[in-house]
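Attaching the record inline, Q. Sequence:
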Amino acid sequence: MKQTLKRATRLLFLTLLAGCAAGPRVDADADLGILWVRDAAEWQALALQAYAAAAKDLPRFLADRTWSALPGQRDAEDLPPAIIFDVDETLVSNVDFQIALGDRPFSNAALDEWNATHEARPIPGAAAFVQLAIDSGVEVFFVTNRPCQAKPGVERFCPQQDTTIHDLIETGIPANADRVMMAAEQPDWTREKKVRRDLIAERYRVIMLFGDDLADFIPCVRGTVVPPCTDPATRALRTATTEAHQDYWGNGWYILPNPMHGSWTSVE
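Structure, as predicted:
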């Protein structure tokens, strides 16, 4: 009952907004956060701002060989530099898929099918920054929670990786299988990205992290338990751990705006 009332109130608000606002109408059947990503110049400005700030910071992190964007990384001065990027809502926008999905339950198969049959929408500023990093001698890794899942009639173990690589290339970002790390690609590569980040850190000094979700930066912040985490996160824990890492935000850690979905929806 509460959810029905909440949805009715939201639809009424959007309908009134559509009637009062000048210019393009607001679709009352879509979520306001999704519409903001699709239509708001403010969303574009925030993305450009994040990547512009990172571009200014890049030379400093390259020059300071003691710097790492991973709090636990030590003795990495002699390792080559690397940057870790999330993919969805960080480099590639899935807002068109979110609108097409509507109220239907999300599935990874549906997202993969959409991405395989539609041109990828780029996040503003992302491709230019990735190319700047590559030109500066930085290795770039794409750590995504798009999962490897078998497809009927497809022998390839992880056909979703091909789709992801194609999406990145469509947005102007060079990518290959050695740099795109999918969930479930290896037995211990769960949706908790810490395992993959730590693996990269064995061979590289990680100088920057980019994502749209707290879990792209900090481990064990989901309301559902994902190994190797052992306890569900709470809103209070997420707030506390965000504040505990305040020196990293905008200083090696760059978060992109995403009001559409994320680990924040799983906590109480």
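The beta strands are 81-85, 92-93, 121-122, 139-147, 180-183, 205-211, 253-255. The longest helix spans residues 41-63.

More tomorrow.
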